[in-house]
Amino acid sequence: MLQLTSQKTKSKNIEIHIFGLGYVGLPLAVRLAISNWNVIGIDVNSQRIERLKQNNLMESELILKKEFIESLNQGRLTLTTELPKITDNKIGIICVPTPVPDNNQSSSIFVEDVTKKFLESSKKGDVIIIESSVEVGTTDKIKKIIELKGYKIGENFGLAFCPERIDPQNKKWNLENIPRIIYCSDDNTFEICKSIYQNVNNSNLVRVSSSITAEIVKSFENAFRLVNISLVNELAILCDKLGINVSEVIQAASTKPFGFMPFYTGAGAGGHCIPKDPTFLINSSKKFGHQFSIIEDALKVNSFIPKYIAKSIENLLVQKDLAKSVIISGMSYKPDIEDMRDSPSFKIVKELTKLGFAIAVHDPHLKKDLIPKYLIENKMKEFNFTILEDLDEKILQDYSCLCIVQHHTKPKLRIEEIYQKSLIPVIFDCQNQIQKDPKSHTILKSFGGQNYSF
Ligand SMILES: NC(=O)c1ccc[n+]([C@@H]2O[C@H](COP(=O)([O-])OP(=O)(O)OC[C@H]3O[C@@H](n4cnc5c(N)ncnc54)[C@H](O)[C@@H]3O)[C@@H](O)[C@H]2O)c1
Q: Are residues 227 and 184 in the same domain?
């Protein structure tokens, strides 16, 4: 059965159904469609489907625009909210969100949901590939759901877990050149995956022996980043106390040719992956009575940093007898992207609000019509701050401090100008990137840096 599917895949004579057309699913759908696969992209968000059908792409998707339009025009990519009922064999690729589990929902709720939908019109020889980052044991859960339908995994139904490692906006490492970890239920399924991923990353697949190993690898990679980001951020706090610059420390430590890898300071890890995936390791350990304390501590540090930054800004303004008013610049959790999920900037806003600050925010990627979405993504009830379209001189006069949480490329020159021309009393740089200008009268304070002009 799976051998037949393998043959069909070699000639691309099989439909691929991609569930979830977000940061992970859409680039994959386009990549496969442009390589002459017939792809059906399914997303429950009807607004997203409508937007895509109108070729209205978000900033981070624009890089795909040419290939996206070509795929639609050639009929290789179909966008829909409803799962098409087909009688032929098909391959399902799951790219839906995997939230942090709580009392109301498991992390695999959407993965299970789409699996059940896929199975409604499945037949022997079909294959499911999970790309979402899942909690330990999820692939086994999915296996049981498929088996309950009477299929035999590895014999007449294939199952693979191939976690996505994409880093949106990374210019060096992208879908095409990032190697992928993969677990496959059997050799035929591995052959099928090789045919598919040939058009994704040239089949640069590292096969591991069990689904749990692959699940642990994915969570461990992100735990590694979380722990190191928290480590460098805690070091930044110490450097603040010592009056030395953390960037100089990192730069000097980086000269060690082995055993050290630089991580850089900031307001903390955000997004849908780094703060979430490591929690899967904590939960898994708990089941064996073990506490994964280093990750728990890293998460604590990660949620403390916005509080520390807010307090540092307050102390500085009080000390200088300045009004408690601040502009937060750069709201997304990484540079040059419109992704605002679980972003530390929103946590800083929450903390400054508690401290009684007047707050305005500026981010060229922030869209007013998406405010309800940002509120949900950052667990906020309301936005009690002003959104600024630009950082013009008149507006700056109303604020004591410009706090840069994220350095985007677009306002970079303007921020340099604000500093050089001393257009605001204080600049607080959470990423410690602005170089000291002795001619400026603006007080420059960097997280983990020295206090300049004090
Ligand atoms: N964003 C990243 O950089 C990244 C990187 C690697 C891995 N991941 C992982 O990939 C998965 C997806 O992340 P993302 O960033 O693409 O999320 P996303 O929110 O950008 O996209 C997910 C899409 O799935 C849709 N969806 C939800 N439930 C659905 C259902 N039942 N049927 C069909 N569609 C459904 C949503 O409407 C949304 O459009 C997550 O597990 C995430 O941890 C993300």
A: no
Find out whether the beta carbon of 19 lies less than 6 Å from any atom of ligand 1: yes
- Residue where a domain stops, chosen among 159, 176, 209: 209
Same domain, 159 and 282: no
Ligand 1 centre from 304 Cα, in Å?
Answer: 27
Dist. CA 24–CA 94, nearest whole Å: 10
Q: Residue 146, SS3?
A: helix
Which ligand 1 atom sits nearest the alpha carbon of residue 271?
1
Give residue 379's domain range: 211-454
Give this prediction's pTM.
0.95
Phi-psi region of 321 (alpha: psi -120 to 50; beta: other; left: phi over 0): left
Atom of ligand 1 nearest to the CA of 24: 16
Q: How far apart are CA 156 and CA 146, in angstroms?
A: 11
**Kind plus residue range of the DSSP H or E element containing 8:** helix 2-10
Per-residue model confidence as pLDDT tens for the chain (454 residues): 899 999 999 999 999 999 999 999 999 999 999 999 999 999 999 999 999 999 999 988 998 999 999 999 999 999 999 988 878 999 999 999 999 888 888 999 999 999 999 999 999 999 999 999 999 999 999 999 999 999 999 999 999 999 999 998 888 999 999 999 999 999 999 999 999 999 999 999 999 999 999 999 999 999 999 999 999 999 999 999 999 999 999 999 999 999 999 999 999 999 999 999 999 999 999 999 999 999 999 999 999 999 999 999 999 999 999 999 999 999 999 999 999 999 999 999 999 999 999 999 999 999 888 888 899 999 888 877 899 999 999 999 999 999 999 999 999 999 999 999 999 999 999 999 999 999 999 999 999 997 654 4
H or E segment and range at residue 244: none
Q: Are residues 216 and 331 in the same domain?
A: yes
